[in-house]
Design a protein that fits this description.
The structure is a single chain. The chain has 18 helices and 2 strands. By secondary structure, it is mostly helical.
Length: about 400
């Protein structure tokens, strides 16, 4: 197509083109290598193909942003609801930190039916992929990341048990700074003005929440408990930022594939390892022996106790799907930015469910968070535009695994 096409006319050195209904003979020129070059009219013959390729690219970009929107909605909605349910568990009589950790991880079996159905449907595509990492390497990745996730979830559980929701959400915003730090070293992150603007605004929006804490909140928590919760939440935020950066690094350097099966493998196997580690902690700590009495003494009843834990587990799994999806669709920092966008949402919802007071600072925090989010999304739009300009639409490219998933 275009300049790459060669005209085969055997021994003839002239060919006929149509111009204004008149046949004309146009000589063919040769380049230094003796290869024949086509004329400008032959170049124009590639126009329909270029238009078709441009339409395909727009369609792929549309579906990509649709997936990003779905994943972002899962992160925002599910994380906010799961945090509120987790806090409700502790306020109504829940005491086990290991159980609070387990519900963050143990919901992965709900994904298994869809996982096996999709895997069998695309078995031929997945099996022919070359340069797959060894089983030992995959086992090392899933086990190490799974242990990190289990520890991280436990620290979050202790922080949520120890601190008010608004204070907990404020400290969690530090995960954005930790993620940027780890992404700089692990993912070669380059800071642009829009990304810096986004990070500053999102950090300020979360920091503002500290000014809305009432004195009654600090009185509800002892000094020792507050310090423990603060340290654990900071450590959890650092671990979360590290997990995001490591996951992005594994996708790019080890797995080298961005398909549905790869994402699901990452979620399920790391959740399996993390769940096993949490179960060991639950039994080793002895907290399992008090769960029966805990359920009996739960203020809202046994049914509410079980429903709380069940829906919390489901919401955290949906959150994980959205989070990992954003990592391989965009980046770990973008995934974290979406998570931080939900930080002001939790105190807003706490006004309705936990009778927290509403202050103007919360509204200002929400505005800044949305502004920072839009700034980051605009940077992604600029990156996509530059990528399109670097890859002309008329140049054919081999389909990647991600494109195969889009066309599937």
């Amino acid at each position: 197509m275009g300049k790459t096409q060669e005209v085969q006319l055997h021994s003839k050195t002239y060919f006929t083109t149509i111009n204004m209904g008149e046949p004309q003979q146009v000589p063919l020129s040769k380049n230094a290598n003796g290869a024949k070059e086509t004329n400008s009219l032959e170049e124009d013959s590639s126009f329909p193909g270029s238009m078709n390729q441009s339409t395909i690219n727009k369609k792929k970009r549309y579906y990509r942003w649709l997936r990003i929107a779905i994943h972002a909605a899962l992160v925002l909605v599910c994380s906010s609801a799961a945090v509120l349910l987790g806090r409700l568990y502790y306020e109504k009589g829940g005491k086990s930190k290991w159980m609070g950790t387990l519900v963050q991880l143990a919901g992965f079996p709900i994904l298994l039916p869809y996982y096996f159905f999709s895997a069998s449907k695309n078995l031929s595509t997945n099996s022919i992929h070359q340069n797959q990492p060894s089983t030992t390497m995959l086992a090392f990745i899933y086990v190490s990341i799974g242990v990190l996730v289990a520890l991280d979830c436990y620290l979050y559980s202790v922080g949520l048990w120890s601190l008010p929701v608004s204070t907990y959400s404020l400290i969690c915003s530090s995960q954005l700074a930790f993620n940027a730090f780890f992404s700089y070293f692990l993912n070669s992150l380059k800071f642009t003005p829009y990304i810096i603007n986004s990070l500053v605004l999102l950090t300020i929006s979360s920091t503002l929440l500290v000014f809305q804490n009432d004195s009654s909140d600090s009185n509800q928590v002892s000094k020792k408990k507050y310090v423990i919760g603060f340290i654990c939440t900071i450590g959890a935020s650092a671990g979360y930022g590290l997990w995001l950066s490591l996951t992005q690094l594994v996708f790019k350097k080890v797995l080298k594939r961005e398909t549905f099966k790869v994402v699901m493998d990452m979620i399920i196997y790391q959740s399996l390892v993390a769940t096993c580690v949490t179960l060991v902690g639950l039994f080793a700590s002895g907290e399992w022996s008090g769960l029966k009495n805990e359920m009996k003494e739960y203020e809202m009843g046994k049914a509410s106790y079980l429903l709380n834990l069940t829906f919390t587990a489901i919401l955290w799994q949906l959150f994980t799907i959205g989070c990992v999806g954003l990592i391989f669709e965009v980046s770990s920092l973008f995934s974290n930015a979406i998570s931080v966008l939900g930080v002001p949402v939790v105190p807003m919802l706490a006004v309705m469910f936990f009778d927290d007071k509403m202050h103007g600072v919360k509204a200002m925090s929400m505005v800044l968070a949305i502004w920072g989010f839009v700034s980051y999304v605009y940077q992604q739009y600029l990156d996509d535009t530059k990528s399109e300009n670097r890859n002309p639409s008329h140049v054919p490219k081999a389909s990647s695994p991600l494109e195969e998933e889009v066309n599937r």
